Amino acid sequence: MWLSLYLLGSNNTFNTFNDTFDTFNTFNNTFNTFNDTFNTFNNTFNTFNNTFNNTFNNTFNTFNTFNNTFNTFNNTFNNTFNTFNTFNNTFNNTFNNTFNNTFNNTFNTFNDTFNTFNTFNTFNTFNTFNNTFNNTFNTFNDTFNDTFNNTFNNTFNTC
Fold first, then answer.
1. What is the mean pLDDT of residues 83-97?
2. DSSP classification of residue 159
């Protein structure tokens, strides 16, 4: 009888141990399921993170490329504009200073020449006036002398 009770008690202990082991297996399976779920979540997160990082980096690199291209264009435009301004300033200085100075000097020389010519022309006008005056005076003198002499001679001869 004691053996039967002993065996019955041992069987109960074994069943309890077996139930405990089953509970542990259930817990282990639950943990494995949780671990698999966590790994799936982790892999999904890593995929999302990698995709996001790659997309962000590509977008950022594209933006940097665009920015660098724009800066290159801007620098080229500024250099071209500065070159044009330098050319414009050089042209204006050369044209205005050289052309204006040459034109002014030429005009002043022409003006001086013209003034000299006018002075010479005034002298010619004076000579013309002098010649006219002398001719008129000589004509008057000749006429007066002829008239006076003829009148005097005729009067004297009459007397």
1. 87
2. -
Q: How far apart are CA 73 and CA 15, in angstroms?
A: 84
Q: Which amino acid is at 40?
A: T
Every domain of the chain and the residues it spans: 24-153
Residue 126, SS3 per DSSP = helix
The mean pLDDT value for 68-93 works out to 94
Q: With the C-alpha atoms ordered 122, 127, 132, 137, is the resulting torsion angle positive or negative?
A: positive
CA 108, chain centre distance (Å) = 40
- Lowest-pLDDT choice from 11-25, 77-91, 144-158: 144-158
Count Cβ atoms within 10 A of the Cβ of residue 24 and give its class: 0-12 exposed, 13-18 middle, 19 or more buried. exposed
Grouping H, G, I as helix, E, B as strand and the rest as coil, residue 1 is: coil
